[in-house]
Structure formats: C-alpha cells, structure tokens
Amino acid sequence: MLETLITSALLAVVGIYCVVVKKNLIKKVIGLAIFTNSIHLLLISIGFREGGIAPIITQANLVGFAARAVDPLPQALVLTSIVIQLSVTALALSIAILAFRHLNTLNTDKMNKLSG
Amino acid sequence: MLEYIISILIVSSFLMLVLKRDLIAIGAILVSFFMMVLLFFQDQITIVRFGGWVPPFGIVWVMDGLSLFVGLLITGISSLVAIYSIKYIKERKHRFYTLLCLMTAGLLGVCLTGDIFNMYVFFEILSIASYGLVSFFLDEDAIEGAFKYIIIGSFGSSFILLGIALLYGVTGTLNFADLALKISHSPVFMIALGLIIGGFAFKAAIIPFHAWKPDAIEGTPTPIGAIFTTSSSAVGVYGIMRILFVFGMIQLNFALIGFGVLTMMVGALLALVQINAKRMLAYSSISQIGYVVMVIGFGTTLGLTSGLYHILNNALIKGLLFMGIGCVIYLTGKENLDEMGMNNTPLLICMGIGVLSMAGIPPLNGFVSKWLIFMASWEINPILTVLAIIASAITLAYGFKIFSSIFLSGKKSSGEIPKIMLVPVVILTILCVLIGIFPQLGLNIVEPAANALLNQNQYITAVLGG
Questions:
Q1: pLDDT tens for residues B266-319?
Q2: Chain B contact present for A13, CB below 8 A
C-alpha cells in the first residue's frame, strides 16, 4: 500500500515537472499522461486489499466474500477515466500535429501564445 | 424527464455527424430548453434513479433549485447560439453543431447529476467538446489557443479526479447526499475540498488559473465565445458552490473573498489594455465572475442571491455583447478594436444597452445585481463595496472603449447583417431591459436557487429518505 502511494506521488511530481518545464508540445502531452496515470494508480491502490480475491462471486468463494474481495468500484472509475484520458491525449496530439503543420516547430518558445 | 433531455442532446449530436442536417441539432437544443422551462414549474426536487438502484449505491440525478437555474441559463444561451450560428458558421457546419450539442449535454450533465464521479465524467465531456470548438477554425490562433486550453484544462480536471480519489478513499461513497453525511473537518477532507475547488476554478477562470481563457476565446468562433463566457463560467462557479454545499461550508470564507476581489480587480484592469475585442470581453467576463466568487464567500442569503443574480445578468449581457461583436466580425472580418468601424442602427442600440448594462447604469439589469452585491458586501466590510464600485467604474471605461471604437469611429462598412443573427441579439436586449425594469422577474428564478443552497437537509432527505 505504502509503496504504491510513494510511486504515485513520485509519478505525479514527474508529470507536473514535465508539463510545466518542458518546452516541447509532445513532451507536455506525455507529462499530462504521466500525471493522470499517477492518479489512476492512487485510485486503484485505494480499493486494493492485501491478499484479496477478484470481486466476482462464484459457488466456491461465496462464504466470506465481502471480507476478502477487493473493492471493484475504483477499478470501474479508473477504466472510465482511462477512456477519457485516451480521448484527451488523442485530441492533444492531433492538435500538436496541426500546430507543427502551421508553424513548422514544436517548441513553445517560438509560438506567440504558448511562450508565456 | 431529466435523462431524456441529455439523451436527446447526445443522440442528436451523433445523428448530426451521420445525417448532416443542421435542423436536428437546433431542434434538439430548443427542445431541451423547453423541457427545462417545463421543469421550472415543478415546485420540488426531481430525482432520477438509474437502474432503480437505491441512492448511495447507484447513480442518481438530482435537480434542485440551483441546478434548475443553471440548467435554464445553459440551455437558453445554447439555443440562442444555435440560432445565431446558422449564418455565422459557413463551412463544416455539421461538425460545429455536433460539438455544440455535446458541449450543451456536458454543461447540463454537470449541473444535473447527484454523483461526484458522474459530475467528473460530464465535466470531461464538456471539456473535450470545448477543446474541439476552440480549434474549430484550424488557423494559427485557434490551434495555439486550443493547445494551451487542453494542457491547462486537463491539468485542472486531473485535480478534480485526485480530489474524488481522496474523498472515496476516506468515505467510500460518491453520492453527494451520502458524502454530506460522512464529512468531517479532518485534513484529508480539506485537501480534497481544495483540490476539487481548484479544478473548478480552472473552468471558471478565477485569476491565478485564468491564463487559458483569453487565448481560447480569441481563437474560437465568436458565438462559442458567448458560451465560454456565460455557461462555462457559470458551470465552474456551480461546481464550486455545489462542492461547498456538500461540505456544509456555505459560510464566511476569506479565501474565496480574497480570490474574488483579486479576480475582479485584475480582470477589469487587464480588460482595459486589450486591443482585441474578443480578448477584452474575455477579461471582462473574468472580472464579472470575480464579483460572483467574492459574494459567494460571504455565505449570507443576500450574498448568494446577488451572486446568482449576477451570473444570470452576466450571461445575458456577455451573450448580447459577444453576439453583437460577432455581427461586426461577420461583416468586417476584423477583430481589433481600431479596425472595427460599423454603422448599423439596430445593432448600435442593442450594443449600447449591453455596454451600459455591463457597467451597471440604473434602469438596466446590470444595475440590479450590482446594487445587491454592493449591499451584501456593505454588511461584511465597506472596503469591499468600495473595491466593487471601482471595478465597476473600470468596466464603464472599457465598455465605452468597445462602443466608441465600433460605432463612433466614423468608419463605415458595407453589407447587411442577416436578420437571423440579429434575432438573438434583440431577444437578449429585451431581456436586459425587462429585468432592469422589473427586477422581480429575475428574483423569481434566483431566489429558489439561493434557498436550495442554504438548505442542505432538504437535499439529503430528498435523495436518501425518499
């Protein structure tokens, strides 16, 4: 539990650093993806239980199911969030491609609005 | 009924892509507006339980006074924008209307849902549609604005997700009413509260988080600028109010007052120095949202009423000014104030009323809410009233700058504005004057919203007890 928390905090720091400091549009998108994934890791680890079983009821694990199964809700949340993240990343990358076609560069220092 | 409104919007947005008939989208948005008006006459909290699950487990949609108020505003502005865009958008119309439907659905979903993760999902639907609309023209301005908006906007929504993760980890529930019962004032809750409010502050463009807004609005089609400055900001403020409501923290809050005053003053000063008309209006809307955030921080009945009233008036005025400026841009193709000369009597009257109303000149609607704001802030601290009046004076200055550079510069441009583009502008002007003369009209919509915010128990019993 503690390991995943530390990992997710480290990933979040890397992601934020990447979005704020890097000048390349693609690297900013990568940083955003890392940051969001760190939150996904945190969410998953919230529902995790040491030695837990998959949250699917069968005849075999009927007894004491609630006490042993991991929480399925965070997994559903993360699945939804991954889909959202996918579409945002796709849109951001396609806009980065368009920006490259217009300006012939991916460096934010050479753009009017993104340099600030 | 609530679920049908959103289904109509989402289904028609996909139909638009296939069938490419503009009427589908315009019809869907108008129908959603009329359904919201019908719901207005139902005097109780409407609840939809999806799949018949009992509230803390399943997703519920709850419509109380506050959601109804914001929903009416969103669908109203979207209908006017849909009518206006028939002529304004000349190419790739079906894509524009697809995104417009999707954006309206997202905006409505955020304020109708009673489940915090569901709110995040609709918030993302809204954001993705907005990113698409900002980049719609695919020119240099649009692309750079859209990229900036995507990075800052997704960063903001990630904070909301992080807050939700923390809340779920501590309470094990996502339902607003159930959360309200389980919340205490321990540090984890306060961190989650700060993160979620921060996320919504990106959308409402409160000053340290405002950087995306002027750039995005400069690139976007002008009618969408009207949605950004009205409905989008309203939804951002709605998110802040709803989360404070869930935490039972509608009370005197110095952080909100501080950010509100900062936003109000800096936004007005930055608006003064702009040369691009759309950027100026963007900063102006940031400044007006600052007023709203300040009075929400008071936590009093008068404060909330005046804040919500100001959201309504800001929506009417900014909608009017954006669509008016859109008419000028449509004819001249110029966005800089120096080059925007124009000579058209109906537009002159409408824009004149809009500018005077924005500055808060007495017989118009801007005055009503500003007067209420002055009274609410006088109760807390007279210094705040003085600051609000100063910001209001600056508003008059830049409002006059817009008006004079368009209509008094002596330049005349040929061509005629299409009638259908003038219709929404005239409707909004009439509403501005009507609400100014009969303030009770606006109060009838706003007061139930303010009461709903102050009555947390009623919400909890309606969702969990019924």
A1: 999 999 999 999 999 999 999 999 999 999 999 889 999 999 999 999 999 999
A2: no
Q: Give the distance from residue A52's alpha carbon to the nearest chain B alpha carbon, in angstroms.
A: 17
Name the E strands within B286-387.
none
Of B206, B18, B246, whose CA–CA distance to B119 is shortest? B246
Q: In this complex, which of A74, A80, A102 lies closest to B143 when CB atoms are compared?
A: A102
Residues B317 and B431 sit within 8 Å (Cβ to Cβ): no
For B158, the closest of A29, A39, A80 (CB atoms) is A39
Q: What is the mean pLDDT of residues B101-117?
A: 93
Q: How many CB pairs under 8 A join A and B?
A: 85
* Chain segment B183-198, per-residue pLDDT in tens: 888 899 999 999 999 9
- Residue at A116 is within a domain: no
ipTM: 0.93
Q: Where in the sequence is the domain holding A95, given as residue range(s)?
A: 2-110
Tell me which residues of chain A, numbers 31 to 50, contact chain B at a CB-CB cutoff of 8 Å.
Answer: 32, 35-36, 39, 42-43, 46
CA distance B353 to B346: 11
Q: Which residues contact A45 (CB under 8 A, 6 or more apart)?
A: A1, A4, A5, A8
User: Taking the domains of chain B in order of start, what are their residue ranges?
Assistant: 2-465
Residue of B359, B342, B340, B349 whose CA lies nearest to B422: B349
**Euclidean distance between CA atoms B289 and B311, whole angstroms:** 8
Segment B425-444 mean pLDDT: 92
Mean pLDDT, rounded, of chain A: 87
Q: The CATH number of the domain where A18 resides is what? A: 1.10.287.3510
Which residues of chain B make contact with A28, given a CB cutoff of 8 A? 151
Overall domain count for chain A:
1
Once rounded to an integer, what is the mean pLDDT over residues A69-96? 92
* Angstrom distance (rounded) from CA B328 to CA B150: 29
| Chain A hits for B122, Cβ within 8 Å | none
Q: What is the mean pLDDT of residues B342-370?
A: 88
Q: How far apart are the CA of A100 and the nearest CA of chain B, in angstroms?
A: 10
